[in-house]
Design goal:
The chain is of the alpha/beta class and 260 residues long. The protein is built from 9 helices and 5 strands. It has 2 domains: 77 residues, no CATH class; 113 residues, Nucleotidyltransferase, domain 5, CATH 3.30.420.10.
């Protein structure tokens, strides 16, 4: 009888062990995509770096023997731009302590929406936010998001004279000097022009999410080219983005090691 109980207990233990599934490594970010990672990364890099439409990228790939529909290029850009930005985040330099903040406009399905942007004194784009409104909630959301990217609180914030800024800065950056003198914000207003020139070849933005991905992707490329990441900084300027994307593509495409 005692032996029977022991056998029954061992059987229950074995069944319990069989139910334990092994921990498998996470799949590559490129798993399930028909095209090689090099083609996907090339298309995304071209689209973010140059003033190209999705159809332009489709044509350039076709000239190289790769037949891809422009809708697929769009999906690649939407899918992989945030992944590349996340992979690069640990290599990003801390922003400076003088922030230039302003809003500009972008058009989505025929209507204008607001685009908040901030750069520091070194030209690094700190953050961007697409918002349907320019109000206290949107301004607070933008500054909260921007401050979450760094442990450094700015000592000076330069804005226009919009009424929402003093309240938000007093709440989120109470020690910062709020500077609103005329022409003090020319630096970021000029920087808006680089983004507008990128958006011009596009055939319009359809969704807030699309606008967010494209504007953050543009800022990402701009920061790489200006040397604000520890990515490709030893390369000449005209090869810096290529070197950065090569490293980041490997990072998001490699399976993590199995834990022993």
């Amino acid at each position: 009888m005692h032996g029977g109980k022991t056998s029954f207990g061992m059987l229950k233990l074995m069944r319990r062990i069989r139910r334990v599934r092994p921990v498998l490594p996470l799949p590559s970010a490129f798993t399930g995509f028909r095209f090689p990672r090099e083609v996907i990364a090339l298309a995304v890099r071209w689209y973010l770096r140059y003033g190209l439409s999705y159809r332009d990228v489709e044509e350039l790939l076709a000239e190289r023997g790769v037949q891809v529909d422009h809708v697929t290029v769009f999906r690649w850009a939407q899918r992989f731009t945030p992944l590349l930005i996340d992979a690069a985040r640990p290599r990003r330099h801390a922003p400076g302590d003088r922030w230039f903040v302003d809003e500009t406009y972008v058009k989505i399905t025929g209507r204008w929406v607001y685009l908040y942007r901030a750069i520091d004194q070194f030209g690094q784009v700190i953050d961007v936010l697409v918002s349907e409104k320019r109000d206290l909630a949107a301004t607070r959301r933008f500054f909260s998001q921007a401050l979450s990217t760094t442990t450094l609180t700015p000592v000076e914030v330069i804005t226009d004279k919009a009424a929402v800024y003093p309240h938000v800065l007093e709440e989120l950056a109470p020690g910062a000097w709020h500077h609103t003198e005329p022409y003090a914000n020319n630096r970021i207003e000029a920087d808006h022009g680089r983004l507008k020139s990128r958006l011009r070849p596009m055939r319009g933005l359809k969704q807030l999410r699309c606008a967010h991905v494209i504007t953050t992707g543009h800022a990402f490329i701009q920061n790489i080219r200006r040397g604000h990441y520890e990515l490709g900084i030893e390369e000449p300027l005209n090869l810096r983005v290529l070197a950065a994307f090569t490293e980041l593509t490997q990072a998001i495409g490699s399976r993590p090691r199995e834990q022993i």
